[in-house]
């Protein structure tokens, strides 16, 4: 099996305009994640950001992406619809997609799932989050303990308007009294999606080893399979399967 | 419990332009289905068609619809995007939606599910279809036998590009050698969707009693529930749940 | 539609041997629940307890039960295997089953689900529980707010060794830092199962109106449907479906 | 990653007592499958049969099995309950299990799923079966075409009394007019189960390359993951997560 080609996409705005965020992610969230993934055997890593031409998601880049990671927040609306549609089609054709944290409100996530995925509760008080593993035998839980504790995070709370996940791997507990479906797997078309909740830009979440482990696990899980051939459309007139 | 308000929506083109279809459904597919539903206790039935203003789906009509049935084929593209978006939002807010036959290619079905739901195999040779019940205890299977046999139907074959149904009630067998997931239930937002495959316009499928029984069952299953309240967005700063 | 026949089954040991429990449920947990259900239109209610002959679950009683509620804890092992098997078969034939709280460790729940459903974390410190509704449009969430708060409860924590629920309605938050899948729906055979977590015998949980509302909702959801006929076993030699 | 240790279990009765079966599988169905798997890189293959001591499933053998394949038919009842229970526990602890054809009626399959999995329709007329791929992006569909055609097979027809699969990969079409859920994936405890329908002993099904490809794919899919740690039982008294 060849390498898995990963592209880490980031909006990359907070890091350039907010000093606290810049101090945590001096080269952007995408570089923090990409730096980690580059150290993982079997992965080939690139990055793309919103303000590049075509948001960095040219046809060539997409054609060379097996798994796409997506972090966005402030500028969901600036992502052009035709790029979103290309990404959606690539996922349906088999590309993996990992949507991180505030990416829940992105066009690509909402369009692939069909619901208003931006709808949830939130509170930005830097509270404790515990992500409990509810499917310990799942590939995305590889190498973890019973839960991951993040000392300071933004809270996301239910009701989260998503279709029931095909596989629910993590449920979060928050200090302030809320819960959240934090690790959600979906199969759509030939592609796999993984939504992973943590990652508020104001806290060093993507420097925490267990979080990076989950992202790595997610990449291997979401990588395309050389699956069955398919065809669509009109088929030839009926020929009896059974010859008398 | 009050009556369930049902609106049967139809493209209503084939019936006006094709003599064979007109002979089967002289007042349109919508009227054939509405006539049946009007005989069912507990239902209040209206119809709407594409060529009415706002496709008959005015705000008032939608506000007075608990369950919407959808039959379309030739003119999916003529359905205006803003109407589709209104219907989508109503479903997420709790309205039931029953998508019939070639409605699989409609904007509303595709947008709610996120995949290219128009993609499947088809053959229009008037062959035998058997819909096998795989969940006999499901409310949508009420009153049926082991399978429903339709003497002449258009074939739809897998691979059908849909998300795996939350509940799969029927699987079709076709004379020519194909199978199809023909009765597919989804929950999206607060609403319920039911896709029911049969209903090619060239055959009197919506005059067959078992087919009408399934549609009736679907209406009762998809009707909204006065469910839990929900709220979204920023919540107040953290207040300890536990008072020391 | 006739009345739904409900049987509330209880182990009925704690209430007879522990003064605190007796003070909360002087006539047993089963009577507290049955008293409530008797006030609901459309229900016909009976009770059965472990120490009755055949644990109160005679063939006649089971034949007259549409939905069975199950509370057990200390004496799971005393429930005779042949009675468990009869109940299991009744569920597969269409009877609804609602398993409450410590009933997660019962033979009937474990046998119907196939996993070691007794396995979970617990702590008996009388802490706050919040049950968040994650499927607000579900019939079991009828009439609720965003969450149910129980002031003092026993904690159950993940990992809970259950198959992923067909529908997950509630997720619990606990003061001590844990989460739990607290409202789990399953379809097995022709029957429906609902597991509902709250109900430690030391606290007046079954006197709390929202809890009783959920139990009522569960009964209506789990009630049998007069679904499709089925047959099994050898079928006649092949007869061509298509006559040449 | 080390090799995956596979054990192919077979009842091994038909092959010893029926000449036609013996001519197809002179060394038993287990050897036909094991011979194939031995040629696959990354697998280490052993076999076990009913009439060995402990049915060949000693503690040592099970401890050295990552994925167990199971073919049984005539003698389901002869498999000792304590061995079944050991296998069940191993699956819940993470071992993969692939149940083949008439293995649907085995104790191990029924106990892990909780329903009467022996219940289905069947007809032994040697008819055509087509297994349509409904999830082409699934790892178990790797390398396949749109469907697998088996020229002569025993028919299994719905209603098949199984819990709805977590992932449904294949649906079969049969010449005589039936359909069947033929490739069913389940997660139970930490383990994965795959039920694969084909394999009647009277036809050379396990010599057909696509069938062997699916079995190989199934082994890789079902192999255990070094997943999250878990613990169960009473936990220490509540310690505030949040230090005031």
Automatic annotation (TrEMBL), chains A, B, C, D:
It holds the Pfam family ThuA. InterPro entries: Class_I_gatase-like, ThuA-like, Trehalose_catabolism_ThuA_prok. It comes from the Bacteria. Gene3D superfamilies: 3.40.50.880. Transmembrane segments: none annotated. Coiled coil: none annotated. SUPFAM superfamilies: Class I glutamine amidotransferase-like. Residues 5-222 form the ThuA-like domain. This is ThuA-like domain-containing protein. The lineage of its organism: Bacteria, Bacillati, Bacillota, Bacilli, Bacillales.
